[in-house]
Amino acid sequence: GPDPASLDREPPTLADLCDQLAGTDGGAPLAHRVERWATGSLAQLFAGGASLPLDRHLLVIGLAPLGDPEVRAVAQLAALGLLWDAVRRDLAPKLIVVDEAWKVMRQPAGAEFIEELARSSRHYHAGLHLATQDIVEFFRSDFGESIVKQSDLRVLLGQTPEGADALARYFDLTVAERRSLVHARPGEGLLFVGRSHVAFDAA
Q1: Is 194 left (phi over 0), alpha (psi -120 to 50) or beta?
Q2: Tell me: the pLDDT tens digits for 136-180?
Q3: Could you identify which of 5, 104, 115, 181 might form a hypothetical disulfide with 110, taking C-beta atoms 3.0 to 4.6 angstroms apart as the criterion?
Q4: Residue among 195, 196, 173, 194 at smallest CA distance from 184
Q5: pTM for this prediction
């Protein structure tokens, strides 16, 4: 189990782990793989000693500057892990917002993580808001439909024909409802609450 005497010590960084691996028999190959994240160009992201201010009323983690898909995938999981830790710290009401969720869903581990959030967040008095502009990519994930089923409220806005087809199949939309999504103006869409739904105009 954990050693209580170690709780006040400064936690090790990835650079410390890299050094330890390099000095361990058979650890050099893994140390080489970790080096990029520990001491290379990505060290500022993953090897820093600073912690996020999880006690703030609003915490925003932006990943837009990360262009490398491999780096973005790792950063997404790290960000979601931090947010999940913040949710479980206490039972104060919280809202988790994941924008461009389809990008997270492209990674199997990311999709599984989002599905876990969808299933469990309410037990910690937390809400989950997912926004995506590519519903086709979202539904390609093995967890896509399961995540949508966990949602109490679903808002469908304007769609491409391909996106409208995917939504029509899942929500059993009428021909008129599908057409309304394809030709929707900003602020127009369909609101689903439970088994009921209605067209709306929020403009």
Answers
A1: left
A2: 989 989 999 999 998 989 999 999 999 999 999 999 999 999 999
A3: 104
A4: 173
A5: 0.71
